[in-house]
Give the backbone structure.
Amino acid sequence: MTTIRLQTNQNRLIATLRHAFTQASMLGELLQNARRAKARHIHITAEGDTLTVSDDGEGIADLQALICIAESGWDEELKARENPFGIGVLSTLYFARSLRVHSLDKVFRSTTTAVINGEEIEVISAPARVGTEIRLCGVEAPYSGPPLAE
C-alpha cells in the first residue's frame, strides 16, 4: 500500500503569495493590525520611497509573531471574533526593499529578501515606545505616476 499526504514547498508558496497582495491591501493589513491592537491613533507618513505606519496600540510582545505565516499572534477572543489569517506583515515583504519594526522595547531591521528566505533576524533592545512603528524602505510605486508621498 502506498500513502500520500499534504506537503508544502514553503519557498514556492511564499514566492507565489506575492500575487495575492497589492500595495493597497498591504496598507489595509497594517491598518487592520493597528486597529486590532486597540490603537486610538494611527500615523502614516510617506517620504520618497519610505512608508511609515505607527500606532499607539498595545504593541507586539513577541516580534516573531510578525513573521510567522498563518499564526496571527492575537489572543483567542480576537481569533474567534475575526479569524485573522496571520499574513499581514508578509504582505509588506513584496513591495519594499527593507523593513524596520519597533514595538514596545524591541526592534528589528532586515531586508525583505532575508525575511522571505527564512534567514535569522536579530531582535535587539530599544528605547521603549507606545505601540508599534513599521517603516518600509524602497517601497515600489503602485503604478507609474506621482511619487509615493502624493
User: Anything to note?
Assistant: The longest strand covers residues 42-47. Residues 37 and 57 are 5 Å apart (CA to CA). The chain has a mean pLDDT of 85. The chain has one domain: 20-137.
